[in-house]
Write a structure and sequence with these properties.
The structure holds 2 protein chains of 2 kinds. The longest helix of chain A is centred in the C-terminal third of the chain and has 34 residues, at 501-534. Chain A is an all-alpha fold. Chain A has one domain (2-573, 607-646). Chain A is globular and about 85 Å long. Chain A has helices spanning 2-20, 24-49, 62-86, 91-110, 124-153, 161-180, 184-202, 216-247, 252-260, 266-279, 287-291, 297-306, 308-323, 327-348, 353-374, 377-408, 419-422, 424-438, 443-457, 461-486, 501-534, 550-570, 612-615, 617-646; strands spanning 55-57, 120-122, 577-578, 593-595, 601-603. Helix content of chain A is 72%, strand content 2%. Chain B is mainly α. Helix content of chain B is 72%, strand content 1%. Chain B is built from 10 helices and 1 strand. The radius of gyration of chain B is 19 Å and the shape is globular. In chain B, 59% of the residues are buried. Classes of the chains: A mainly alpha, B mainly alpha. Chains A and B meet through helix 19, helix 20, helix 22 and strand 3 of A and strand 1, helix 3, helix 4, helix 5 and helix 10 of B.
Amino acid sequence: MSTILFLIGFPLLVAIVLLVLKEDRARDVVVKASAAVIAAAAIYFVARNVGSGEEFYVVPHAETIGTVMMAIEVCLALVIIVLGIQKKRYLAPVLSIIQTPLMIWFELKEGHHIDVEYAMYIDRLGMIMVLIVGIVGSLIAVFATGYMKDFQAHQKGKDRRPWFFFLIFLFLAAMFGLVMSNNLIWMYFFWEITSLVSFFMIGYNGLFHKEEEEDKIATRNAFRALVMNLGGGLGFAIGIVLLGMNFETLELSNMILLGQMGQPVFIVAMFLAFAGITKSAQMPFNSWLLGAMVAPTPVSALLHSSTMVKAGVFLILKLAPVLSGNLAGTMVYLVGGITFLMASFAAISQSNAKRVLAYSTVANLGLIVTCGGIGTPAAVWAGTLLLIFHAITKSLLFLCVGTAEHHIGSRDIEDMDGLFDRMPKLAACMLIGIAGMFLAPFGMLISKWATMVTFVDAGNPLLILIICFGSAATAFYWSKWMGKLAAIVANRDNVETTVHGSESFVHVTLTCLVVLVCICFPFVSKTMIVPYLAGKTVFGQTIDKLPLENSNMMVMVIMVAVLVLLFAFFFGRTKKRIVPIYMAGVNQGDNLTFEDSMFQPKPVSLRNWYMESYFGEFKMNVIGVVTTSVVILGFIGMVVGALIGYGGM
Amino acid sequence: MVKMIICVVAYLILAPLIGGLLAGIDRKISARMQGRVGPSILQPFYDVLKLLEKEKITVNRVQDFYIACFFLFVIVTGCMFFAGQSLLMVMFTLTLASVFLIVAAFSSNSPYAQVGAEREMLQMMAYEPMVLIACVGFYMYTGSFDVYDIMETPHMPVVYLCGIFVGFVFILTIKFRKAPFDLSMSHHAHQELVGGLKTEFSGSTLAMVEAAHWYENVFLLGMVFLFFSNGEISGIIVGLVVCLAAYFLEILIGNSFARMKWQVALNSSWLVALILGGCNLFALIFIG
């Protein structure tokens, strides 16, 4: 219990310190030291609890804490209302005005009688999240110390970095709280905090700026994200009210147990899953995540790929046992599947690296959501693997793109050719990250493989087709990016010397983590995921057959090792004579120019394929948004209709 | 275990011989179809041996490494297949190998090679769904992804997987690099892209690409064979005959068509995968 308090309280304390600290050097020291402490605490916490697996905690003074949370919620609602009116964006305030009184009414009137025994609990899935938030989150915070110096140098106006770091650490505290809450009202509170942090971060260059310095796009995108997440929050609130009024409980673990006993809690699960869908930026809500790319890159890495959006899929995976084989589950896997396919297609048409990463994030979250919707133990196993590998690999890629942008002046993939000459170390990290996203024997491919097997076992031909076509598209957009990076372009200067030490440290650490997790994932599966699935509040039975056989996993691990050794010993060594490339006889000798028909030298320029007519972003979004909206409205409409028809549950 | 080792060793030794011979036969038959005498059946071997003696030149320090990896992982793919491993793992390893080839072409930063690489990626995207659907089909029919388990089924899988079989033969045209879908590179001189993907490969590196192609072809014919194996001698005979017939069919197709635009390759492969593959999957689930 004390470690839990520390994990939530300590980042909060650091956040407040950072808010008042204006001096660069002091801030660096505080951020780095506390990041180390948080990572260590997370590891210690997991190491101590992993043996027992599930722990429930009776929180002292829970009543008081609840009241404080309520007060904070009211204050936050007021902030949203004031800001919304100031910036003339009224939808967010309206949503706030609906859901905050709803929650307060419920807590005072109904929730008061419901006894919450264990407000917090931790299981192995929660521990995995704690590790991701603790380790990846702290690494990103360290990265941000260097990155934000360059970022500030590119900005006009006052230095808002104290606000930035305050939000980062506040966010870490909220995430720890979120993944360990058993009382759904508490989870909702932390959920809303992360939504707000995301809102402030996206609007970092707009919300509090003077008219002439304001980045209008940042403000607009921030409000869009806020509106969608508040909409999800409303779904969360409705779920809580339904659960409390009909089943007399507010505990997540109890809800799952009720579901196992055959109670119709899937109706509640449907609303909670809806909140998860908005948080994980599934279609039709994916536009907020694309818009969120205006935020500084560490934010994209931390909130919008590795942790906050994972809160949505985390909740859906937790709910998986009550989603299997019912309307709610069907809604969830349809939304996830369609999102995966459409987002993978849309990624092909993008040349902005951050947007490619964003679409890929949406797509992979879609796969995890689909796994949750199928809701079999094997599916949750695959989904959890996806969650782990994606968090590490994608944060690495975001941070690499962030650094590249500050040094080559662009985040366009077309401008990254020859990165191997200009920033060799960074290009190597980026290449490993990309390989990690789609190639055997790396993590994402392994988990996608497992996902495919579970789709087949679920006997769902639609999902099988979706993953077959989606995987083909995925390989296309990653390999063309990889090719751009790998191109050896003559006469490029090395611009890597000015990269901050903290940035390269984090790149290298995350790259090592990507490889390391690939090597020890069978161990992670054995000690964390398989026992988690057998837990009393999960499926309550040991999983009989994993989607991947042990021998296959071992082959993959060996392949990782072989690849590492091959690159270490043989890469870039040749005794052959180096000659110019072929350009139909008109190469000017430097591999960069050729002689044109007027006998003038002309530079060569090579571009990737984007196939706009096939995979145009707009078209993919329209198809995806329309179909998923129909699915969500249809299923929720069906349930609400049935509820009204029968006059309650 | 003994069976596994024998199969792998046999594949390592025999595949290049069979693959090279098939390539020689291909050239002979093609020549006859075009009214020429054609080279000796052993010509592909002479070509590769000659390549090994060429001057040792390259365009950068990394390209040959990528090609070596491509060669290695194509062989690993085949070995896994003949060792009876999971079909999905086999296919994913093949993808890894193909990506090494693509990255090698990109690394030269040469216009012809890069356009070839883009087209190669497109071809991968075109055939991949059908290949994955084929693996899934085998699993749904036999209950296992493992090649040896599939081979032990009492009835020929092709009976229940006829749609998937036709679809698979369709995308074999891409995999065998035959017209109309030899977009990224081909053996013929009459093309707009010089050597396409392999423009910048020379000497021993090009020899490796050729040898890898032989290994890959034998593995692909192994996939065709799998549709007909029923654990009995009859299955083996029918399987081998169909493999040869399929190979001949691809030669015929290759000689009957001109190269088509990439749109045709993508549209037709995806439609075939969706209609033949998809319907076959639905049928399998319906039958149970």
